[in-house]
Every structure is written in structure tokens, then in C-alpha cells.
Amino acid sequence: xxxxxxYARENKVPxxxxxxxxxxxxxxxxxxxxxxxxxxxEEFDAETPNPVVIFMPEGSRTHMGSTMRLGSRRTLFQTxxxxxxxxYHNSEYVEERHRHRYEVNPDMISMLEEAGLTFxxxxxxxxxxxxxxxxxxxxxxxxxxxxxxxxxPGRPSAPFLGI
Length: 163
Ligand SMILES: NC(=O)CC[C@H](N)C(=O)O
Hints:
Elements lengths: L1 H10 L3 E4 L1 H13 L7 E2 L9 E5 L13 E9 L5 H5 L5 E8 L1 E3 L4 H6 L3 E5 L6 E5 L6 E4 L20
Parallel strand pairs: 1-9, 2-3
Antiparallel strand pairs: 3-6, 4-5, 4-7, 7-8, 8-9
Helix pairs in contact: 1-2
The structure holds glutamine.
Glutamine binds next to helix 2 and strand 5.
């Protein structure tokens, strides 16, 4: 997955990373562009010195049961000037379904954004990264939620229309 994300980023191949796919794109970007060779998700290396993806449960941090961020949650677009906001018909927010425990580390956002990765969708607290884009790329998009859950035959969820 890491190599696929790298290849797509460097060769301007369309990339839609869903959930772990978004997390992988952040790890790959941190390693290749920021030069943080040890960047990782806490899920894969709990001791990583550069945790760009961390355990961010909605419930308890110590119990696996009921810690998943699950079901429909709101994502607010941070700017109308991005690919995904346009795909979602210039809505101010979208409600998509979630199923995960790990998320992009909010403490690393400014570093990632200074290097060109932009977080164009966040939850209402501003702490949970929901959508990323790479403006220097024709279509490099990551979504923490699962747009496929609301996709239907003949009525695909918006992000798929961008590929
Ligand atoms: N559905 C997914 O891709 C979730 C996996 C992911 N590593 C998590 O945050 O739990």
C-alpha cells in the first residue's frame, strides 16, 4: 500500500485512499516528503518516534470494545476551493459513515500542511482529519470515512466521481 501511494503521488496517478488508505498516504508523505523515515501509525509501531497516525477512539482509550468511531458523522469543509467540496456539490458539510480507531495525529497537521498536504475536511471539533488533498496533484484524495457505505449502483458516492 505504501508503494502504491508513493507511485500515485509521484506519477500523478489518481489516488483515492479510504480509511487505512488515507492513513497510509499520510505515513508515506511524512516519510518521503518530510524525511521522517520512522514515521508510522501507532497501530503498526506503538513506539514510533514519529506517530503521524494515532489511536483516537471516541470512547475509552484502554478498552477495545466500543472504542471505534462508528456510523454517520459530520465533516465540515474548511474551504470551498478544493476538489472534494466541488464533488459534494459545494456543500458546507457532508455526513458519511465511519469505522476506525486510528486517525491523523492533530499535532502533526501544521508540519504536513507546510509541506503541501492539505486537510480540507475536519470534524466539528477540528481535531479529527476527515479529508486530505494534495493541491499539486490532479487527484490525490484521502478520506477517513467510508464513502462506499452510502454508494449505490448508478448513484456512486461523490469521491468516486473524481477518479
Ligand atoms: N476500516 C479501516 O480501514 C480501519 C483501519 C484503521 N487502521 C483503523 O483506524 O482502525
